[in-house]
């Protein structure tokens, strides 16, 4: 249904969600200047002010962009308005005041609704004001590609530098809420390399790096592959550490071995799942915060569906999908995905000094 709706975008004339934030109101307070920002990037619309999006939008404001925002959540809209940020009631209103529109939304269906729904970004038909659309949502590659095709068939109301046709980039991120707050996200970008180069300043205002992945949809594909590797890695480390405990080897000892030998990985040396071994990670706070199990299920569902569509075997991905689905059904859906160590493998806490 989502893809069918997307294919019909060219016949739609309405769009939803709009956001704009005015950087000039913050430059004198926070010491930022917008003089370094190219004119074609000055007016940025941001749609989707959740845990990640709100922090990304704030970093753009700090960097001096004139931002306009939109979200369905009236409370978060009120908070931005009280900060002096321009808020809009629909995506279409955001598009009408923006050179670039960034979306950060929960799912493919939300993205399609924001672009193609009533009062959506494409409400005006094929004549658009924004020269660039950037979707940082984690969605399936095919929806990203269909949306890029639809936008490439539109024209600009006004020529922007050398751009006569609007462009769209898929640019999902790697990094937690903490990284979004600190502006240290990594963007995985698919689409036109020319558009990627032109937008790089935007990415570096919200993150530490942006990696060009190739054609439209490749950013979305890269994010799915990154997260399936992260899920399988976390389960492998958790399984090994829990087995070690059963065999009489402390997880602290095994972690030391892993981290100076061939088993070393992010799940062992940076995001260890054993409560008591590492400070500042979800396992140290009862698995609260971080990347929830339900979001991991969502991303693994995308990976499994993409693999099936491509005719590619992914047995570890399917097994990880089953494990995280079970964790969610058992009531651990909002816990960080590293909770598999305790709630699937029945691993034990260990004091730091063990």
UniProtKB/TrEMBL annotation:
SUPFAM superfamilies: 6-phosphogluconate dehydrogenase C-terminal domain-like, NAD(P)-binding Rossmann-fold domains. It is an enzyme of class 1 (oxidoreductase). It comes from the Eukaryota. Pathway: Amino-acid degradation; L-valine degradation. InterPro entries: 3-OH-isobutyrate_DH-rel_CS, 6-PGluconate_DH-like_C_sf, 6PGD_dom2, 6PGDH_NADP-bd, HIBADH, HIBADH-like_NADP-bd, NAD(P)-bd_dom_sf. GO terms for cellular component: mitochondrion. This is 3-hydroxyisobutyrate dehydrogenase. It comes from Quillaja saponaria (Soap bark tree).
